[in-house]
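ok so for the tutorial part 2 we go from a plain amino acid sequence to predicted structure tokens. step 1 is just haveing the sequence, like this:
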Amino acid sequence: MKMSLVGGAIGALVLVNAGAFAAVHQHFQVPAATASAATASLTPSPSTSNDTMTTPATGTPTGASPAGSASASMKVDAVDPLAVSVIAANGQRAWRAVNSGECSANSSVTVQQTQDGGRTWTTKAAAPAGAMQSISLSGSGRLQLSGQTSGDCSHAVWLLTGDTWSTSSSASWLPAGARSAKVLHGSSTRQACDRGWVIDLAVAGDTADVLCSTGEVRAIPTSGSPKTIYQSADALSIATTGGNTLVVARTAKGCDGVQLVTVAKGSAQPITCVQGASTATDLTFAGDNGWLVAAHNTWTGGVTGDWSKS
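step 2 — the prediction. this is what the tokens look like for a chain of 310 residues:
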């Protein structure tokens, strides 16, 4: 899923101008609660063989809402103690959020910024969260954090203005909650996965793609029902380039790390193998500038296959 988010040039850490981020991609990663380290696998539970086109399942999961008027962006499940989420402005500037551990009264979230392609990261204003699910840009262009409060670990959304975080009652492309099959935009909710739950989402323009825990990548149109456009039991994360090309990060035989592939008409074409990347990973694109963050390591590159470690 990812998303290409429309945002813009960022002053300080927060205010973004809608023009400069015409293709900023947001990725929200929240692996399963059972993962106890950043190197834990995020591979969704297999449902069919890898890399196949499937017909979307009919029927609605128990408790699912009818399709609403939202798309979404995120990665969902319970919060991983060492989860990392990243959003980029271009090939040099990006932000990441890192959990200190499981949500508790003493846990925290560190938000950092890089302006040199991920070689160095500077810690920004301390976030008031006990654990994060995602970091992104809001519809107004401010840095947005979705996660759990440090008190009772309930779900909350914060926006950053200058150096101050404040809670928000609305959200732009966020998970509907842990292990949810739905996505949120503003006050609207829309069904995304027929089976399983959303673990990643990418938005390009008015449409969104989500990665479900079943390994299905589902396209969510502005109207009508979502449909499955790709299937891989080894998919870890998805992203959308500035040209709306779907990119999937996955595990693959012969790749000692994470393989990146482009997807068109249900067929995957390998870009490269990012050697040494752990499967606890988050993929995002800002235009055609790709970022892969795995544990505390960063790789950057594009759809041409030239990826390097920062």
